Every structure is written in C-alpha cells, then in structure tokens.
Amino acid sequence: MGKFLKEFKEFALKGNVMDLAVGVIIGGAFTAIVTSLINNIISPIIGCFSAGGLTGLHLKIFKADLMYGQFLMDVVNFIIMAFVVFILVKAINGITSIGKKKAEEAPTTKKCEYCQTEIDIKAVRCPNCTSILDTSAFKPEAK
User: Fold this and answer.
1) What average pLDDT score do residues 60-65 get?
2) Torsion angle (degrees, nearest 10) of CA 19, 21, 26, 31
3) In angstroms, what CA-CA distances link 122 with 102, 103, 128, 132?
C-alpha cells in the first residue's frame, strides 16, 4: 500500500498534472466570466428582437412543452463562447510567438559544382560524375 501511495504522489506532483489542475481552475473562472457576458449583455440584445425574448418561446404538443427558444439561446451561447475562446487562444498564441523565429531546417542536399546534380550534403565525391567535391574532407591515411 505504501508503494502505491508513493507512486500516486509522484504522478500527482508531476508538472503535467499540476498544469492541468491550474488549467481547470482558470477554465472554470473563465467560464463564469463568459457566461455572465452572454447572459447579461448578449442574450438581452438578441432577445430584444423577439417579443418577450427567445427563452420564452415554446411549443405545446399534447402534454409536452418544447422549449425551443431556450434551446436556440443555448446554441447561440455555445457559438459565442467558442468564438471568445478562439479569439483568446489566437491572442495568447500571438503573444507567445512574438520574438520567436521558426528554426530553419539545415539543408540535407547540395549541388555538385561540376554536373549540377543534387547530392547528399556530406558527400565528398559526386556519385553521378565522380568528381571530388571537397578535398578538405579527405584525411590522409596513416601508413
């Protein structure tokens, strides 16, 4: 049992788990802010185009009361929340990428100066025309 608890402690205190916990907490706080924005500002603006707001729209079928107005508002809320999250992620990615240059990949090929064939960058002799390309790479053999 002691080994199990030790392994669990190591797992729980790893950086990824702690980052995830912080993300969940911040996500919960952010959700509250976006929900407040939608419920208190955006929904009333959308609702003013309909008498009594969209949430009051319903359809009675026998004893079932279908609240399609509330469903429409939930769809609009989801779209707005997704858009706000998208904008924030784009902004954060823009901030973190400032000053960072993409690492240029080192070339893996070069052209033979004699026959213009593309060859491996490490080649000292062209496999096509057999010309010696870089004599400085040759090391004399010890005799």
Assistant:
1) 88
2) 130
3) 24, 21, 15, 12
> What average pLDDT does the chain have?
77
CB atoms within 10 A of CB 84: 15
Pair 75, 67: CB distance under 8 Å: no
Threshold 0.85, pTM exceeds: no
Q: Rounded distance, CA 44 to CA 79, Å?
A: 16
Beta strands 109-111 and 118-120: pairing type? antiparallel
d(Cα 114, Cα 102) in Å, to the nearest integer?
Answer: 33
Question: Above 60 in pLDDT, residue 103?
Answer: no
In Å, what is the CA distance from 100 to each residue of 24, 92, 97, 105?
A: 28, 14, 5, 15
